[in-house]
Amino acid sequence: MIKSNWSPVSAGLLILSLLSLALALGILSRPTQLPQLSIAVSRTPLSAPIYIAAAQGYFRDQGLDIELREVIGGIRSFDLMASGGADLATSSESVVMFNSFNSRNFSVIASFVSSDNDIKLITTADSTLRSPYDLTGAGVAVTPHSSSEYFLHNVALMHGIDTTTLNMRETSPENMTLELLESGETQALSLWEPYGYQVMQALGEKAVLLPTKGLHSTSFNLLALNDTLARHPNEIVATLRALNQAADFIERDPAGAKIIIQRQLQLEPAFIEWVWPDYNFRLGLGQSLLIGLDSAARWAQSSGAIEPQPLPDFRSMLDNRFLRQITPEAQDL
């Protein structure tokens, strides 16, 4: 008979060791759960860096699990963030300006694209409008409290038109259609892409694009509630690093970037070619945005869109702490 040298205590210790090893291996082999953030992203080519960062895996490379929650327009994007439905949001500076009068609990952490031709003024060959000088008394559809409205007022002022003579008709961007022009009550549409292109295509040979390129520049920005910035500083920096990678990809491989956006937004290749040259994809946060916000706020008050009150301190709402960690040359504010 073979006598074992294992005592009950030794056997128990061995079993315990094996169980501990198995548990440790199980934990080590379990996929690491990445920090999660959600972005309310406007369905527009202006949001290209965000879509590309997701498609190319840049968010995950930076240790993030990002969920994109798509909406139409920066207003809805901001509202989703403000209501707690998303951690970050994308919007134009006009949306930032209007909301700053109601709330100071959010900040702009970066601009990631600018364009001087994203918003269009479109009419038909049947109308008498041929230049912005003809806008006096014309019915123009705008999306209120957005870059669409601010753009129209800027163009009018540049052409010596009293803005009180503008006959603005408020509507959502997706309702700015051929039918609205055909109704006879609206002679022109002030709208951003891709809706401008869609209306132009629907009108065909009857489409008339009023000359406004270069008259107004708009930026698209990344926003967050201040509470989110306080709770997730490392994740915010990682998000900006991913967007910076996406901007580099756009510059390095524009053809590949166009394909990603075309597929993501289900847009025609011809539209991407139409709009892409107007976009400057680059991360920044500086004086130009600050000046733009201040000018927009003064316009909003003078036009009656906002009741007279002290202007917000926009400088305090542009938080470049995070951007400076990846682009030290970011301007001081």
Automatic annotation (TrEMBL):
Family: Belongs to the bacterial solute-binding protein SsuA/TauA family.
Swiss-Prot/TrEMBL keywords: Signal
Compartments, as annotated in UniProt: Periplasm
Domain of life of the source: Bacteria
GO cellular component entries: periplasmic space
Ranges for domain SsuA/THI5-like: 47-257
Gene Ontology biological process: alkanesulfonate transmembrane transport
InterPro entries the UniProt entry points to: SsuA/THI5 (IPR015168)
Protein name: SsuA/THI5-like domain-containing protein
